[in-house]
Design goal:
77 residues, 81% helix, 3 helices
Length: 77
Amino acid sequence: MSTSSRDRQQKSYTLMRMIYDLTMSVLFLGMSLLMLFPKWFKLLQFEDIDQSFRYLFGGICLLYGGFRLYRGLKKNY
């Protein structure tokens, strides 16, 4: 395999991983917003969930979404 072919393959892999990480970070950060602030979005289904569970799960989603965002922007694969 030539080096230019390998370079293109590496660039396409990096681009795919970056897009995947950024998409997943948006989903996790969005889920954290829904869990932490259900009254802003008027979601009665989320308001009925135990408050301590919502804050714990929302915090975990916020941390993991931030990590995925950092990893997607860093692009060190």
